[in-house]
Amino acid sequence: MRELSKLRLSAAAAHVELDALGGDPSWSQHPDVCRKWAREVAATGLFRRLHLDIEPHALPAWRADNRSLSAGLLAAIAAAKGTGLPTDVDIPYWYWQFSGPRESSLDMAVLRIADRITVMAYQRDVEHVMAVARPEVAHAAEAGKSAFIGINFLPPVDGSLDGTMWGMNHSQVLRAIAMLESQGIHMPGFAGVALHDGDSLIHLR
Length: 205
Prior knowledge:
The chain is of the alpha/beta class.
């Protein structure tokens, strides 16, 4: 806790906000775990926002039981919001294709509760990132919220480069971010670019 307090002071001096990132697919099955985590984070007084990365679609049960898991995801988000801290949520770019409650898409159901979303628009280049992110950013604007566009440049897990910009050097990554920012500012609902992840960016050649 002492180290986090020092980090908070350093971040504040640099005009940087600290968010608490947490999540696990199982939280969609046990939303109370999310509630407990969120309350513990809020009690520290160190963080300005909560950031949830739950991803219930990673569970084997998703294919057969996505409605129940989606409901659990929404319950977990609502539980985190109950702390009073602004709550952001990571979602994949294709949630608009799945049904949520109230005859809406799952992404819109998330947006009704969350304060902001980060769209995991993991693709191999800027053109494909923008193509898959556009529906979610538009839905965020429709909901009166905003969306970060998330890009990935970690090594591919399955050998496919379709979901990552891995292989780019530092200059190429910065150029890709600049291109996304320049295109995104013309999109209502666009909040900026999120990186997966910052530590990897630091170590790029």
